[in-house]
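Researcher: Next entry in the queue.
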Amino acid sequence: MSDWKDRLNVVYSTNPDFKYDTDDEQEEETILKEKQALRISLDKRNRKGKAVTLITGFVGTTEDMEALGKMLKVKCGVGGSAKDGEIIVQGDFRSKILELLQKEGYAKARII
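Model: Structure for this entry, 112 residues:
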């Protein structure tokens, strides 16, 4: 399969060792749980007054972030999503999520 659509913005390169940067190659590795500085906050903006618990600061692959989000949603028994570098859990579960994250090994997690 040709990947010419991934490099549409590159006009010309005379460098024989030039590598095209695609979105697939820019996926970063997940850092250790102990070094993750997760921030837990309550958010009501643009949600019609409904409160959600927002977990930000996750550094890693989207698969790992989605797995962490799923675990938190299951343990809290509510819905939510994990996208754009944020994990959203419906409802105000700040203290419960902090407790769950600390049990999982995320020592630097804190409520802001």
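Model: The domain at 33-111 is CATH 3.30.780.10 (Translation Initiation Factor Eif1).
Researcher: Noted, moving on.
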